[in-house]
Amino acid sequence: MMVIAAKMVRGKKVEIVSLLILVIVMAATAATVTYDHRALVIDGKRKILISGSIHYPRSTPEMWPDLIQKSKDGGLDVIETYVFWNGHEPEKNKYNFEGRYDLVKFVKLAAKAGLYVHLRIGPYACAEWNYGGFPVWLHFVPGIKFRTDNEPFKAEMQRFTAKIVDLMKQEKLYASQGGPIILSQIENEYGNIDSAYGAAGKSYMKWSASMALSLDTGVPWNMCQQGDAPDPIINTCNGFYCDQFTPNSNNKPKMWTENWSGWFLGFGEPTPYRPVEDLAFAVARFFQRGGTFQNYYMYHGGTNFERTSGGPLISTSYDYDAPIDEYGLLRQPKWGHLRDLHKAIKLCEDALIATDPEITSLGSNLEAAVYKTSSGSCAAFLANIGTQSDATVTFNGKSYRLPAWSVSILPDCKNVAFNTAKINSATESTAFARQSLKPDGGSSAELGSQWSHIKEPIGISEADALVKPGLLEQINTTADKSDYLWYSLRMDIKGDETFLDEGSKAVLHIQSIGQVVYAFINGKLAGSGNDRTNISLDIPINLVNGKNTIDLLSVTVGLANYGAFFDIIGAGITGPVSLNSAKTGSSMDLSSHQWTYQVGLKGEDTGLGSGDSSEWVSNSPLPTNQPLVWYKTTFDAPSGSEPVAIDFTGTGKGIAWVNGQSIGRYWPTSIARTDGCVGSCNYRGTYRNDKCLKNCGKPSQTLYHVPRSWIKPSGNTLVLLEEMGGDPTKISFATKHTGSNLCLKVSESHPAPVDTWTSDSKFSNRTSPVLSLKCPVSTQVISSIRFASFGTPTGSCGSFSHGRCSSARSLSVVQKACVGSRSCKVEVSTRVFGEPCHGVVKSLAVEAVCA
Ligand code: GAL
């Protein structure tokens, strides 16, 4: 009896021990993610999370590790991305998870760098992405209505969402399985437009929520801009500011899924930018007011390769003025100032997660928030939300100077670690170095050989083209297989038609809902026009007695991605199209005639983009400034390892391929409107997407990114489809270089660098502000100091000048500290520079050259 009992106990012991081991192993890998009123809770601990959006198809897998590392170095904890349905399922049931669409690889790389992932499955994305991320085949599913309580739509949405969740589960990528995904999003900003869908919108939203929950990811779901998101889905905020946001339940944390770090560019638009002082202010205000999760949209914007840009008229660059620029280089001082901000916020983490802030007014437009824990830690945020004047406030018996529109962060409720308006990171210049492609006055830097060409036929070239009475809507006709749709008409004209003026002249009237139209009469370009949604053209033309052809080429530039019913807005020449007499007003409506249609161009069909065709013509003069010509050349890689761009100045509009990879639409002749730009943008005051614009009256985009990994050392092919007319020999290559110039201005009133922050007030009182410089490239050193002044220097980077007061030692002190080293630090104080003028707050401004 006893023996048996002992055996049993031993057996149980073994079982328990192995169970324990299993639990320990699981615990080491899997994490529980929940949330409460204050924050996301990971493994039982509330977290302050700084996140940034990087959309994987907007860069290449070769760029991902560097972008992710730069995100980590910038102080991010989380990478946020949408999932791009139309990229993953270009044809129904045919999936693509390769190359730039290798989502699993992207998520794993984030995990490898120690970052979490917020996966916004959508599957509606918006994102200035073609058709908002929906595959266009979805539009043709019988009976479908997008984003509403419609069975065919819901079935497809559920199928794709489940497909992604299953893939993530298979690869063990949810935190609940030991992976990095701590949060998933369903839908996107549906609350902004749901009223347009009436009651069916509400039931669709609820269905989306429960469908998502049923997929059982083991981590929370969020819906952004959805005030009525049902429990347990967290409703989150998107916007330039979210400090005033409160979630719809006291059990949910205050989360910000899109803090727009800049704004997107459109063809024909000036370039938006958002000053970092304002961006940092918005972030600090959010944490001041109880937020615990904040995401930059975008942290790296990247490029809309191929025909992925949304629209209409979204540019190929999706730079977004993000902290990491389109090419993957740090945008300074934006990146650096935000890194310092993140450090300051993290210094407050213990207090922030412990409690709600206690908010008090320190005067008009002046606000303090204090986070105090029972164990004695304390963090404070002091804000001046006035836009005009700096203020001095008294807080806990101490006096603090707060610049207008700024927040000071005090991780110990006493000492300022950071102020959003006081930048401690140097501006690093970036510049493009040109390399010409074509032998150009014997230039030694030439990269390319001669050009060859193929002329695209004008009008219908297919034998089995579609003939239909009336004008067809474009997307329904092309299914977005191409940007191009030919509308062609052959007609017999007699000399006595009433719409003809003398000499068989007439005016061709064309009405289109976008985005570009070229009109060819008897094979010759007669006129063209473009607009987002409304093109109205009146083109004087010459017809001939007898047979005439009218060939209209309608071109889309990115399908709409935002707004209620964006999927059925449509595009193309919807009419009327008519011939009119300028003299008598007599007119003939052609709209309901028998039109012949061709989807796409012949060269697209035959795959000219790949470069390999036997039809390229190289032994005759190159036709230039003619519409619809394909061009090809070969080139060697631009020297060095810097990012590469093509400058398309000289060409008109089209699509380009490098070694068969489409680098996107180019359109250097699309000129930004002339109004709305400001010389320098005052960061103080509420930011809007049209507040800070540059590049008015200039081409919206001349430089187009070609990822390095798409280029071989030599023998590369560049193919252009030039639709408008241009001279490809004017094209040049450019490499983007960073940091030959560093410049920074730090005042005596700046906080000491956040890295040196210590809560020991006696010590920190002795810590002066420091101006630090570091050449971005490891092989560089500071070779000279262009400008240095300790006193009251004026101007900004690139144009500093000495003010009324300047220490005579300025230059020599900075030279001694910096020249010859990659990095240097100079204390900003009279101890170092002497006293050039009593009773004023002095600054040290420096401009240095790295070589
Ligand atoms: C938001 C949307 C994003 C993006 C952004 C503008 O409304 O959720 O996907 O389109 O606007 O860049």
TrEMBL record:
Catalytic activities: Hydrolysis of terminal non-reducing beta-D-galactose residues in beta-D-galactosides
Protein name: Beta-galactosidase
Membrane-spanning intervals of the chain: none
Keywords: Glycosidase, Hydrolase, Signal
Originating gene: A07p024770.1_BraROA
InterPro entries: BetaGal_gal-bd (IPR048913), Galactose-bd-like_sf (IPR008979), GH (IPR017853), GHD (IPR041392), Gly_Hdrlase_35_cat (IPR031330), Glyco_hydro_35_CS (IPR019801), Glycoside_Hdrlase_35 (IPR001944), Lectin_gal-bd_dom (IPR000922)
Family as reported in the entry's similarity comment: Belongs to the glycosyl hydrolase 35 family.
Domain (SUEL-type lectin) ranges: 765-851
PANTHER family associated with the record: BETA-GALACTOSIDASE RELATED (PTHR23421)
One Pfam family in the UniProt entry: SUEL_Lectin
EC annotation from Swiss-Prot or TrEMBL: 3.2.1.23
